[in-house]
Design a protein that fits this description.
Helices cover 36% and strands 21% of the residues. It has 275 residues and is α/β, with parallel strands linked by helices. The chain has two domains: 126 residues, Leucine Dehydrogenase, chain A, domain 1 (Rossmann fold); 139 residues, Rossmann fold, CATH 3.40.50. The strands form two sheets. Strands 2-1-3-5-6-4 form a six-stranded mixed sheet, sandwiched between helices. The chain has a six-stranded parallel sheet with strand order 9-8-7-10-11-12, with helices on both faces. α5 crosses α6. The protein binds 2'-monophosphoadenosine-5'-diphosphate. 2'-monophosphoadenosine-5'-diphosphate binds next to α6.
């Protein structure tokens, strides 16, 4: 019987994950199917139980269920533990196991695909929700000179930074008002949900300089994200969306499930509209 996988989220209709995993399966000769399942807020545990009862083997999890996925799992790999959020689930026997491949996905896109080395650079992380939580640890592992987290709800940014304080690394947090007067950042990572409403967080233009790589963890199938457009308008050296991260986090999930590591570059090239 063909093995079954899926991504659960809300909204999910426009997810590229089924296409990405189908391409990985074809490339590596793995026999599996992968579908997108719309799961409204509050219905996650029930949807996972149904998927398992129907023979499902593993799941990707996206907005707004990453923290629910973490809570539902019985066992957590260190990356999920550190993030307090999960984007990849599978069963080992009857135990549901959780990992988080978002951070490694972002880091691989930055370093392997975009040629950006975070060591010694100043990084601004915008947002402190489920998406931001997954990338703080992996960014700090690369030894930036500074990592500053800003969020609309300041306490949430402070709470996130405090979780990593014991590492003794240069992490700070605050509201958007803490950004005035600072020099432009080498890397600005956008991890808020504002783009879903077509908005951009209230960042001062001074966060972007001619050397800045602006990175939106979101992507859109039909053109630029609002943050990418905004960052380019401010004169960023480069402004990119999260398609590369999406493919890289998917490759890591595929590896966790199947023990085979797919090549990402041909899949990424197949998804990017010709420029
Ligand atoms: P996700 O898993 O996508 O991160 P989340 O946990 O609901 O979802 O977090 C959403 C993030 O986007 C938060 O950082 C949120 O800010 P608050 O913590 O203040 O709610 C941020 N966000 C959502 N809409 C926003 C907007 N219009 N402007 C600025 N930040 C916004």
């Amino acid at each position: 019987m063909t093995d079954r996988y899926a991504v659960m989220g809300h909204p999910i209709a426009h997810s590229l994950s089924p296409r990405i995993h189908a391409a990985f399966a074809q490339q590596t000769g793995q026999d599996l199917v992968y579908e997108a399942i719309d799961v409204p807020p509050g219905a996650f545990a029930e949807a996972v139980a149904r998927f398992r009862a129907e023979g499902g083997q593993g799941l990707n999890v996206t907005v707004p269920h990453k923290e629910a996925a973490y809570r539902l799992a019985r066992r957590h790999r260190p990356r999920a533990e550190e993030a307090g959020a999960a984007n990849t689930l599978w069963w080992e026997g009857e135990s549901l196991v959780a990992d988080n491949t978002d951070g490694v996905g972002l880091v691989r896109d930055l370093t392997d695909n975009l040629g950006f080395a975070p060591a010694g650079r100043r990084i601004l992380l915008v947002g402190a929700g489920g998406a931001a939580q997954g990338v703080v640890g992996p960014l700090l592992d690369l030894r930036p000179a500074a990592l500053h987290i800003v969020n609309r709800t300041v306490a949430r940014a402070e709470h996130l930074a405090a979780r990593f304080a014991s590492r003794g690394l240069p992490i700070t947090a605050g509201g958007f008002d803490t950004l005035a007067g600072a020099p432009p950042w080498d890397l600005v990572v956008h991890a808020t949900a504002a783009g879903l409403e077509g908005a951009v967080p209230p960042l001062p233009p001074s966060v972007i300089g001619p050397q800045t790589l602006a990175y939106d963890m979101m992507y859109r199938r039909d053109g630029e994200t609002p943050f990418v457009r905004w960052a380019r308008d401010q004169g960023a050296a480069r402004a990119v969306d999260g398609l590369g991260m999406l493919v890289e986090q998917a490759a890591e999930a595929f590896f966790l499930w199947r023990g085979v590591r797919p090549r990402t570059r041909p899949v990424l090239e197949g998804l990017r509209p010709p420029s």
